[in-house]
């Protein structure tokens, strides 16, 4: 069986579950927005009563929560974390599972090179994150327009989804590079997810303390900040170039590590 097709079938069930999960998260969150709006209370008034640190942690400090698009801007950070966790675990698992599950011999008997195998695996992973991103995009457009009362918002959501896709690619290759290098395949997904959570927590710490602003280059979550993408500077060239460079380096590292490693059967 073609390696690409095999990987698509192997990850089909997990992809469906993740897609259902993100669609439910969006619909339930926007439903909560509708409930708050219908209650007659000003969401912004409630927001002013919250401590600054809590608003930063929850991502609420920079948006007008009386609008559906503004409320979605707060939701985006949770969608981005969910999408990147999926991408990091997918990148790590799709590389390491042959050793973890003791099925590497399946690959050895196929008349294909390691480069062909790793390319097929990464293409399957790419298709998975594209599908996840499109489901998130379609669900977001549908739910925001349902509650936006003619405010629009499709342009802002499109920019957010492009930013999220770059984040997905970033952590996909982080996971794949770690798995290709690691001698302990079972730990690769946990390590990749740990790096992701560290960079996410770092982005929150930067928002809490302006003195840490110089550290923003070490967390891709600050490259594609929802407020900037929606209202301010949009996609900043320096961050896009850094993202492309890091993704390219990690992709080449994945190929090099996988080509030179001794797979255990």
From TrEMBL:
GO molecular function term, any single one: ABC-type transporter activity
Positions of transmembrane segments: 69-92, 122-145, 157-180, 187-206, 238-258
Pfam families xrefs: ABC2_membrane_2
Superkingdom classification of source: Bacteria
Alphabetical keyword list: Membrane, Transmembrane, Transmembrane helix
Record keyword Transmembrane present: yes
UniProt GO cellular component terms: plasma membrane
PANTHER family: ABC TRANSPORTER PERMEASE, HYPOTHETICAL MEMBRANE PROTEIN, CONSERVED
Protein name: ABC-2 type transport system permease protein
Organism lineage: Bacteria, Bacillati, Bacillota, Clostridia, Eubacteriales
